[in-house]
Amino acid sequence: MAEHAPAPEQPRSQPAGQRPATPRPARRGMTEEQVQATQVAAERKREALEEGKVLTWPDLVYAEFLSAVFLTVVLFIVSLVFNAPLEEPSNPNKTPIPSRAPWYFLGLQEMLVYFDPWIAGVLLPGMIIVGLMVIPYVDTKPTVGIGRYSWKGREWQYIFFIGGFALWLILIVIGQFFRWGPWAIYMPWEPREHIKVVAEHLTWCPLHKDPPANMFCPVGFLIYALFNALVFTYPWWLRFVHKDWGERAINYYRQLGLVRYLIVMFFVSWTLFLPIKMMMRLGVFPLFWGIRLKYLVVTPWFNI
Asked: Quick check: keyword Ribonucleoprotein in the entry (predicted)?
């Protein structure tokens, strides 16, 4: 009886939508584990490209490295062509008027006009650092916006960041171009030869031209307390202004909880109070229009 040869094995059909697997030749000097790791990396890159994503390594890091090299070359060429804007050597017998800090510290120097040194030089910079550290612990949407730059979903975060950055630039511009003499405001058309006496135009606190006898200003303290009350209770009164905004604020409070909500609103209140205090000092705050307040809160222990 004749024996039949075995039928050739039929190739397996690929599932619909799946690419046929193409074996990759092993490179010389590579172990089997390295070959498998290379194939896995290539597969991950292919899947990422299909999903519209880009891998951090090597795509993003490679582009960033080339950008850094290009920028370094540009800065090197600029430093060879243009001299640094240095002034004459310092003279201990001649103090420049006004004595300005470097531009990147002008924001802090300008804040010294509106607050006492311990607030402008210690408390506010410390609050900025601590506030940045607190953000991950009070973020109610940690997965929103990862890998994408989008306004939607993080509107308030963008508003506060852009507002804070713009405020810092405004402080630098004021200190660089509008301060002269005894660190007074000079408009571009005002002569620099005229030395202004700032103290003559300042009101110590609301309803008190001079420091009060008991070093306490109840009107200013009441205004500051009312301001903080409005900030901390905004989810409850905002619904009377706009119903949808009020509901979103209430939901935000529920997501945070009481403790995290109080922490967030503490930083928000100081963020809003800084430009308000600036307007009070410059005499352009609507409640005290034309009155340049030195302090709003006056106590025997501290002044704000």
From this structure: no
Residue indicated by tokens 């600029």: 78
Query: Rounded CA gap, 197 and 216, in Å?
Result: 26
- Average of per-residue pLDDT across 100-110: 87
Helix (H, G, I), strand (E, B) or coil at 63: helix
Cα(89)–Cα(96) distance, integer angstroms: 12
Q: Which residue has the tokens 């046929």?
A: 20
Interior angle at CA 101, CA 95 and CA 103, nearest 5: 135
CA 182, CA 97: separation in Å to the nearest integer? 8
Contact assessment for residue 101 and residue 171, using Cβ atoms and an 8 Å cutoff = no
Q: How many residues does the chain have?
A: 304
pLDDT tens-place string over residues 148-160: 667 777 777 888 8
* Token pair 């240095």: residue: 86
